[in-house]
Automatic annotation (TrEMBL):
The keyword Nucleotide-binding applies. Keywords: ATP-binding, Nucleotide-binding, Transport. InterPro entries: AAA+_ATPase, ABC_AA/LPS_Transport, ABC_transporter-like_ATP-bd, BCA_ABC_TP_C, P-loop_NTPase. One of its GO terms (molecular function) is ATP binding. This is ABC transporter ATP-binding protein. It comes from Luedemannella flava. Residues 4-253 form the ABC transporter domain. Pfam families: ABC_tran, BCA_ABC_TP_C.
Length: 257
């Protein structure tokens, strides 16, 4: 079975129930959003999917296989993630940062590289070309030789996205990608995210955990709403926006698409 599937996921912190019987599905070709008020459990859910936080109970699978218990196992399963903030390697250029994301893809060439065989040079060139193409796709190839500390924040976020895509994931996990961006930058990011499932030869499903309600409502096919660790609504954005439980959870705040 394809996609990400969570059933009955519980996380407790001492006496506090951070996630309570959470079910979630991300099917191939979809962008799925998780929203909820402060403290609803969004970060905990992201962490549990990534293997940073152990669930107390629950079933978590991707393409029918159990999710890894540690974050470094994700790539092997075909899952990539970006984190809050930017999180690039400061000592590497933008291009080199993106190449590091692709190394799983280049595993076949690694043996040759370790043995110093000629193939290694060819692989390295291919990786750099692929990284450059990704930077161009995301509109930041002008920064290929720059170092992360010199980048405008929004550019850094795009580079982090390029690095995640370099692994050619079938599922991309995005944790608050709109954090710290201007409204215009959020709009542009929305277009990029919405286009990810249909990328030529490397489309991926997306799980978007995000505060920014407008972005989620605009780009997601399905939205799950958490409140106090429980799923209070799940469905297409237009239905979620009219759901009384969702409106109440946001203290009567208007939910607009
Ligand atoms: N390591 C921890 N130890 C104890 N309690 C925690 C821990 N991490 C989260 N919590 C609590 O679990 C609940 C869910 O927190 P979480 O950060 O997942 O919510 P969130 O929806 O991401 O919130 P926000 O939108 O404010 O980031 C909160 O009550 C929080 O205080």
């Amino acid at each position: 079975m394809g996609g990400l599937r969570l059933r009955g996921v519980d996380v407790h912190f001492g006496g506090l129930v951070a996630l309570d019987g959470v079910d979630l599905d991300v099917t191939p070709g979809q962008v799925v959003g998780v929203i909820g008020p402060n403290g609803a459990g969004k970060t905990t859910l992201f962490n549990v999917i990534c293997g940073i936080q152990r669930p107390r109970r629950g079933e978590l699978t991707f393409e029918g296989r159990p999710l890894p218990r540690r974050p470094h196992g994700l790539t092997r399963l075909g899952i990539a993630r970006t984190l809050q903030g930017v999180g690039l390697f400061a000592g590497l250029t933008v291009l080199e940062n993106v190449v590091t994301g692709a190394t799983a893809d280049a595993r076949a060439g690694l043996g040759a590289a370790l043995l110093g065989l000629p193939r290694a040079g060819r692989d390295e060139r291919c990786l750099r070309d692929a990284a450059r193409a990704l930077l161009a796709e995301l509109g930041v190839d002008d920064y290929a030789d720059a170092y992360p500390t010199t980048l405008p924040y929004a550019v850094g976020k795009r580079v982090a996205l390029a690095r995640a895509l370099a692994a050619r994931p079938r599922l991309l996990l995005l944790d608050e990608p709109a954090g710290g961006l201007s409204e215009a930058e959020v709009d542009e990011l929305g277009e990029l995210i919405a286009a990810l499932p249909a990328r030529a030869d490397a489309g991926c499903a997306v799980l978007l955990v995000e505060h920014h309600m407008d972005l989620v409502m605009r780009v997601c096919d399905e939205v799950t709403v958490l409140d106090f660790g429980r799923v209070i609504a799940a469905g297409p954005p237009d239905r979620i926006a009219d759901d009384p439980a969702v409106i109440e959870a946001y203290l009567g705040e208007a939910v607009t698409t």
